Amino acid sequence: MSSNAVHISNLDTPAASSGLPWWKALITGAAGAAAVNLLIFAIAKLADASLTVVNGPDEHPITLGGVIGSSVIPLVIGTGAALLLSLWKPVFLRIAQYVGGGLALLSVAGPLSSDADGGTVAALSLMHLTLGLAVVTTLELHRRHRLP
Fold first, then answer.
1. What is the pLDDT of residues 14-44, one digit of tens each?
2. How far apart are CA 61 and CA 48, in angstroms?
């Protein structure tokens, strides 16, 4: 009897090149977070949300530049630190995914407790969640690159 089965030993292990190098993952994550948050911003504008947060006597308008900066800067700093730490211990990629996602969930408390209209609260909450998802996804894109 002969067997027609073909044995390929690498089917059970992911390819080392299935993920992105750190710099490509970081650019992809930052661009993705900014794009999605700009889309949320545009939808909120079209829905006539005030896009202004009142903090005591001060009013803080949410601007296009503010959305881009708030999407890119925290992601680059946080995931950049995690990527640097992962050079020492790769487990920091997974730890940072949990911490980044958890912090984004916790940060939603800010918009939810703000003195703003419902559309603004919804938009800001979605933007915070988008950033958390972008952190987790960005680190996963690189983590897959690091797998043996």
1. 444 567 898 999 999 999 999 999 999 999 9
2. 14
The token pair that represents 79 in the structure block = 């995931």
**How far is 103 from 136, CA to CA, in rounded Å?**
11
Hunting for tokens 């903090």 — which residue is that?
55
Backbone angles phi, psi at 130, to 5 degrees: -60, -40
As given in the structure block, the two tokens for residue 136 are 């987790």
pTM, to two decimals: 0.82
Residue (of 124, 117, 128) closest to 49 by Cα position: 117
Q: Is 146 helix (H, G, I), strand (E, B) or coil?
A: helix
Half-sphere exposure of 47 (CA within 13 A, CB side): 15
Residue 27 CA to its chain's centroid (Å) = 11
Structure tokens at 126: 């979605």
Structural Rg of the chain based on CA atoms: 20
CA distances from 122 to 33, 43, 65, 79, 98 (A): 17, 11, 19, 25, 23
Spatial neighbors of 110 by CB under 8 A, at least 6 apart, are 124, 128
Q: Give residue for tokens 């680190």.
A: 139
